[in-house]
Amino acid sequence: MQATKLTDRLSVRGQITAEDVHAAKDAGFTTIVCNRPDGESPDQPSAEAIAAAASEAGLAFHNNPVTPDTLTPEKVRFQGDILGSAEGKVLAYCGSGRRSTILWMLANPDGLTPDERVDIAAQAGYDLASMRPNL
């Protein structure tokens, strides 16, 4: 299963399937976070379907869907709480991994500087330098 590692505990990627959940478990992930609202794409599995697959695989699942219009301090705080309290590795997904990366950058559960977060995102393939003033 392909995922982009941001930190030792967090990787991000685009939409996953139920089969990907089992691959995530095999890769050592213990928690899955959905940052994609249902219905963005006609062929995407629902968060409920991914949650069921996660439960079946013995993984924790959290649904924290965001769009540019629904990215609130509460959503950022919730993401930070999930990342800060998860036991083991976390896989966060959205449409491409970008929103999951943005949530991580804003929540900053690792206490990194803005420059460190922007650099990590860039190394992962996400040019988010424009966010620096907001970090």
UniProtKB/TrEMBL annotation:
Pfam families: BLH_phosphatase. It comes from the Bacteria. Residues 6-107 form the Beta-lactamase hydrolase-like protein phosphatase-like domain. GO terms for molecular function: hydrolase activity. Transmembrane segments: none annotated. NCBIfam families: TIGR01244 family sulfur transferase (TIGR01244). This is TIGR01244 family phosphatase. It comes from Qipengyuania gaetbuli.
